[in-house]
């Protein structure tokens, strides 16, 4: 396994070291800097639950961040990252160490100053990324316990997006863009139908999940099989919803700058028609009362 040589101790949980394969690295591990001094050797096999930042840019950012944050926060973020890795059984982009530490540190400062930031896409995030949302719930709970703070539920949504970003190896801005886009598309649907979809309903969940998968298919470059018979049927039977679906796919194209397969219009029409029918059924029930 080899060993690393301590170059500098930043605090009890973070050191700068020389790695036999990656040259200078930032090493994060519970108690890894405790009682260490320059030129100490640490065998890699003896250090459990340790993260190595290999990317030069990430290292520099993290070195700047460490002196600005509470050491307890470094420790709890490391615990959270480990939990995410074990729960998802997937590698994480190493940027999460910086992104999460920085975000939570700022959130705690805002909380102390009673500056509340509302997360308008909490429902969307929960629906689009349920697994990541559950991991974020755990993260915020551990932060509140360890740091003796009370971060609001809005923070769960923000943390979830950072987890999505790290697991999918996508930049947080792209993840946020997709959440914003889905929120905008839902608002357009509600506007056109003059119907607010209950956020805890199965209908809402189905629509958001479908839109999420449209974006995921586009991101991966997956082809969607043409179904001209379905397309003709949707156009003929549900012209209003077909037109709305076409409008939504054009908005998606403009925002993500990737062409949307025509077949997506037909599949989306089915979801929209179900919502339109639900609205009519509710109106009928209201009249009968």
UniProtKB/TrEMBL annotation:
Q: Where is the PRD domain?
A: 68-173, 174-282
Gene Ontology biological process terms, A to Z: regulation of DNA-templated transcription
Pfam families for this protein: CAT_RBD, PRD
For this protein, the record's InterPro entries field holds: BglG_antiterminators, CAT_RNA-bd_dom, CAT_RNA-bd_dom_sf, PRD, PRD_sf
Q: Where is the signal peptide?
A: none
Source organism, top-level taxon: Bacteria
Please list the GO terms describing molecular function: RNA binding
Keyword Repeat assigned: yes
- Keywords of this entry: Repeat
Q: What is this protein called?
A: Transcriptional antiterminator, BglG family
């Amino acid at each position: 396994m080899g060993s690393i040589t301590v170059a500098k101790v930043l605090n009890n949980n973070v050191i700068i070291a020389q790695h036999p394969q990656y040259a200078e690295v930032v090493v994060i591990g519970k108690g890894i800097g405790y009682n260490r001094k320059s030129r100490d050797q640490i065998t890699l096999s003896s250090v459990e639950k340790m993260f190595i930042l290999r990317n030069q840019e990430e290292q520099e950012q993290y070195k700047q961040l460490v002196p600005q944050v509470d050491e307890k926060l470094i420790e709890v973020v490391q615990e959270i990252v480990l939990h995410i890795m074990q729960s998802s059984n997937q590698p994480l982009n190493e940027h999460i160490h910086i992104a999460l530490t920085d975000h939570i540190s700022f959130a705690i400062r805002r909380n102390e100053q009673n500056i509340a930031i509302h997360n308008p896409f909490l429902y969307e995030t929960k629906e689009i990324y349920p697994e990541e949302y559950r991991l974020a719930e755990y993260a915020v709970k551990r932060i509140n316990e360890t740091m003796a703070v009370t971060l609001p539920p809005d923070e769960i949504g923000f943390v979830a997006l950072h987890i999505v970003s790290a697991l999918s190896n996508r930049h947080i801005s792209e993840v946020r863009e997709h959440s914003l886009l889905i929120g905008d598309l839902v608002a357009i649907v509600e506007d056109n139908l003059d119907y607010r979809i209950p956020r805890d309903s199965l209908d809402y969940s189905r629509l958001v999940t479908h839109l999420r998968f449209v974006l995921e298919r586009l991101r991966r470059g997956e082809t969607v099989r043409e179904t001209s018979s379905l397309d003709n049927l949707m156009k003929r039977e549900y012209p209003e919803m077909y037109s709305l679906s076409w409008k939504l796919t054009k908005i998606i194209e403009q925002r993500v700058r990737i062409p949307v397969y025509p077949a997506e219009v037909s599949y989306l029409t089915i979801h929209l028609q179900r919502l339109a029918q639900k609205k009519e059924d509710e109106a009928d029930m209201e009249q009968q009362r």
